[in-house]
Amino acid sequence: MSEERNPPPTRLIPVLVTAIAVGLSLFQLYTAGVRPLNLFYQRGIHLALILVLAFLLFPVFGRDRKRGLFGWIIDGALVACAAFTGFYLVYYLDEIINRAGFWTPTDIAVGTVAVLTLLEASRRVIGWAITLIGVLFLLYATAGPRGVLPWLGDFLPGILEHRGYRVDRIVAQLYLGQEGIYGIPLGVAATVVFIFVLFGAFLEVTGAGKFFIDLAYAAAGRQRGGPAKAAVVASGFMGSISGSAIANVVTSGAFTIPLMKKLGYKPEEAGGVEAAASTGGQIMPPIMGAGAFLIAEYTGLPYLEIIKLSVLPAILYFATVYLFVDIIAAKRGMRGMSNEELPRLGQVFREGWYFLIPLAVLVYFLLLSISPNRVGFIAITSILLVSLARFLVRQVFRVGKATAKPAERSSVLSGLQTLLSALEAGARSAIPVSVACAISGVVVGIIGLTGLGLKFSSLMINLSGGNLLVALVLLVLASLVLGMGLPVTASYIVLAVLAAPALQGEFGVPLVIAHLVIFWYSQDSNVTPPVALAAFAGAGIAGASPMKTGIAAWKFAKGLYLIPLFMVYNPEIVTGGLSWILIWNLITALAALSAFAAALEGFLFTKMHIASRILATAGMVAIFWPNHSVEIVGFVLIIVVLAVNGWRARRLRMEPEPGDTLSS
Questions:
Q1: Where are the beta strands (DSSP E) in 481-609?
Q2: How many of the other CB atoms lie within 10 Å of CB of 581?
Q3: What is residue 656's DSSP assignment?
Q4: 633 CB contacts (<8 Å, ≥6 apart)?
Q5: pLDDT at 277
Q6: Which structural domain range is residue 595 located in?
Q7: What residues have CB less than 8 Å from 440, skipping those under 6 apart?
Q8: 366 touches 303 (CB < 8 A)
Q9: Is 18 among the domain residues?
Q10: How many domains does the chain have?
Q11: End of a domain among 125, 150, 165?
Q12: Residue 271 in 3-state DSSP?
């Protein structure tokens, strides 16, 4: 009876998943630090193992239903297809390269299976939206007089028409070339993204997450609105290495959101602050989710250069969220947490200072301009060495105790379990990113095959009428629509291929700024209703309405829209320039963001009159206006409004209370 309730395959799946996940992580470590492989070998093996894990972890009928015999047959067949298509590409790679352009029927058949298998994996792992987008692009490739479905071309607007392609040409582009599934997006996911996701997993399982959260509370918890400010700081620490805004919300939000509610923040505000701060982690160096690596690939700039260019805008974003938190705390008369409720900074450092060593190693080797993939390997090695050193030191202090040997044996087993957990967690966390990058390769491959990128650029120029601001608004809308169905990484890749050439070529935006703007706008789907996944995760912890939390997160994260706009019209804040220009841009940016937060909340130092809010908004708009004279006027206007409001707040504090007057 027990065998019927729990059939052997069900019990074997966790073991098989662990074995494959650990094997994948070890393969990635080997190729990152010992022997790099040819791009097709690396990407082929990586994607094959990722897809096998996807089909084992995501059953055909959903995770909440048993597979059954029919489900096992389907999933078993798809596991075999994933493994075989990866094996075929790697094993016959030399022959495939030699017959480039003269593909055999077997090549096309295996490629067709690979594309269909990937589409099914994306449906299970990410959802229908990205799968349907992939299918629509495949159908678009077949539409045209020479395509498989020529009649579809009749429904396309003139600017989107093309010749149409047969199945063999489409499959060759997607499976047998470097511009499709195995292109740049998957290449980045299969190397640097995976190794840094693994780095984050090692930090997490060794307790670094708790250390960074305690550090943030010790640093900011005593200020008014302390837990919310600690959430901003902690999310900056964690999000910059975690690679996922949602994972960051769940990790740090479990601590920060209940404390924010206890202090007086509304549930939707607590969830919104955490979602906005966690989203900021994706734009904060050194890792920026997968963004820094992808931007480096698309712009041709060194990875270290992308990090340097991204630091100042990211700090401005966190300053905006921090300011919102402070204004709300001041408006409601909140106080910080007491010393008894907070960890002591010295104690936090004493108990976890060694977690800073891997981060220091990471930064040091990045500064040496070593390959990011190799740096990730070195950083993971440093975590292992630090953990080993900590274990040995603890054993030295246990010498002579009666329980030394059992404790030592237990510590060794615990260490091995931690190591395996980190290897498995890293591989599991990489599945959505890798599948998203692979399916993005389908979209990118079709864009390259049909010339859609140039057509989209022309369409963008026509709709905007040559106005850069209108073009940026269209970009925001496109990123929001794409973000409803695509993960951030996939949304960025699609928009980068479609819109970056137009921003650079037609509007004169520097290439790196064009990509940073697109990457920032791609983040808005985390915090913008109706689909705001990071905000919804925060709502679940806060016990708040998902939509109200989404609106609050959207408000707190408005730096995602304003700061890219400032980067476009003031490129020196990214690319550098004369010191006085950079300082002026930084001061005006802070003034504009302060005016925005104050006008939106209606409070700064004290309650703001409607006229002050209107003038502050006008000053902010003037600072963003691409004219230096108007910018100066806007800055002066903001300073005057803030000064007057500060003077009013001082007068109100000095006025005696009515009760004091009567008693005197």
A1: 603-604, 606-607
A2: 13
A3: P
A4: 622
A5: 85
A6: 577-656
A7: 185, 486, 489, 490, 493, 494
A8: yes
A9: no
A10: 2
A11: 125
A12: helix
Q: How far apart are CA 621 and CA 614, in angstroms?
A: 11
Residue 391 amino acid letter = F
Structure tokens at 336: 């910080």
CA–CA gap between residue 317 and residue 303 (Å, rounded): 21
| Spatial distance between the Cα atoms of 154 and 156, rounded to a whole number of angstroms | 6
Segment (H or E) for 233: helix 226-242
pLDDT given at position 254: 67
Element (H, E) at 466: none
Q: Which amino acid is at 413?
A: L
Q: At what angle do helices 468-483 and 511-522 cross, to 10 degrees?
A: 40
Alpha carbons 603 and 608: distance in angstroms, whole number: 5
Q: Residue 460: inside a domain, yes or no?
A: no
Which residues face 606 on adjacent strands? 604
User: Which residue in the block uniquely carries the two structure tokens 């080797």?
Assistant: 365
pTM score > 0.85 for this model? Answer: no
Q: Which long-range contacts (CB under 8 A, 24 or more apart) does 427-430 make?
A: 427/20, 427/21, 427/22, 427/24, 427/25, 427/49, 427/53, 427/198, 428/21, 428/53, 428/57, 429/197, 429/200, 429/201, 429/243, 429/244, 429/247, 430/50, 430/189, 430/193, 430/194, 430/197, 430/198
pLDDT per 10-residue tile (average), the chain, 664 residues: 45 88 94 88 94 93 80 92 94 88 91 96 85 90 88 80 90 88 85 80 76 75 73 68 66 72 82 85 72 82 84 87 85 74 77 82 77 84 85 67 54 77 88 84 86 72 80 81 67 83 85 90 77 75 80 86 88 81 88 87 83 89 85 91 85 64 45
Question: How many other CB atoms are there within 10 angstroms of residue 93's CB atom?
Answer: 14
Q: Give a yes or no: residue 482 inside a domain.
A: no
**pLDDT for the residue 411:** 62
Q: Which two tokens stand for residue 77?
A: 């067949």
164 within domain boundaries: no
Distance CA 411, CA 394 (A): 10
Which of 68, 95, 125 is where one domain is finished? 125
